[in-house]
Design a protein that fits this description.
6 helices, two-stranded antiparallel sheet, 4 strands, alpha+beta
């Protein structure tokens, strides 16, 4: 009976630690920097302007990316937080690691979203800190 109780307590502790990790990740991601190349329009905070040189192919952006999501870091961070919210704790770091490696995520609608290299770099930094601790 003690073994079952100890196992149940260990599982409860792991779940608690997993929730702590989940919350810490969400807070850290929400605090990541905005795209410095996307200038917000003061009259409408949901709108921004991006230079055409940042939209067309370059070293940092190897393919032309005209979709708003790619340049809107806050929307990408919100997407990652939504993924964190719906992912089981034991798969959480695998999913985030895959986003860092692949640079994309497939959402429930079947659409594949591509993340900006700077967002991937920010998330990779968070992942590195988790694995170093």
């Amino acid at each position: 009976m003690n073994t079952i109780r100890n196992t149940a307590e260990a599982i409860a502790e792991l779940n608690s630690k997993g929730e702590e990790l989940r919350e810490a990740l969400k807070q850290a991601i929400a605090a990541l920097p905005e795209n410095p190349k996307a200038k917000k329009i003061s009259s409408n905070p949901r709108c921004f302007v991006v230079s055409s040189k940042d939209i067309f192919a370059s070293k940092d952006n190897p393919t032309m990316r005209m979709d708003v999501f790619f340049h809107d870091f806050s929307k990408q961070y919100q997407t990652i937080i939504a993924i964190i919210n719906r992912t089981k704790t034991k798969k959480l770091l695998d999913i985030l690691g895959n986003i860092v490696i692949e640079g994309t995520v497939r959402i429930p609608t079947g659409e594949t979203l591509r993340f900006h290299p700077a967002v991937i770099e920010h998330v990779a930094g968070l992942m590195k800190n988790i694995y170093e601790d």
